[in-house]
Amino acid sequence: MDLKTASALRRLRLVSAPEAVSFLLLLVCSVLKRTTDFNAVPVMGMLHGVLFVLYVLFWADAWNRAKWSPKTAALYFVLSVLPTGGFFAERRLRREAENAVDAAIASRARKEGAVSA
């Protein structure tokens, strides 16, 4: 994998946890709206919507760059619509991005070694 792929995975990872938190907060706000006079659903709904759209855009970019199988791509999409799925996606993406960076560094070192030899 190259550095652009690692960057795409990192962007998706960085938005996955805030998207999961916003989803949980939206659920809490929905309950509070029905049980009290507190109504933050419009604000949290908009915030969650923006984060979800970002997640989907970054997910599509990561799928394209990382050449995920349809099964892997579907897994990351399903994790985005589960209330705590973003936390699991973030953990898996961190490992995948670290592996991508390591592979890019090794590839660059091999190319530089071949040029100097």
UniProtKB/TrEMBL annotation:
What cellular component GO annotations does this protein have? plasma membrane
Q: Where are the transmembrane segments?
A: 39-60, 72-89
Annotated source species: Streptomyces phaeofaciens
What superkingdom heads the lineage? Bacteria
Bilayer topology reads: Multi-pass membrane protein
Q: Where in the cell is it found?
A: Cell membrane
Protein name as catalogued: Membrane protein
Q: Which UniProt keywords apply?
A: Cell membrane, Membrane, Transmembrane, Transmembrane helix
DUF3817 domain boundaries: 9-95
| Primary subcellular site in the record, as a coarse category | membrane
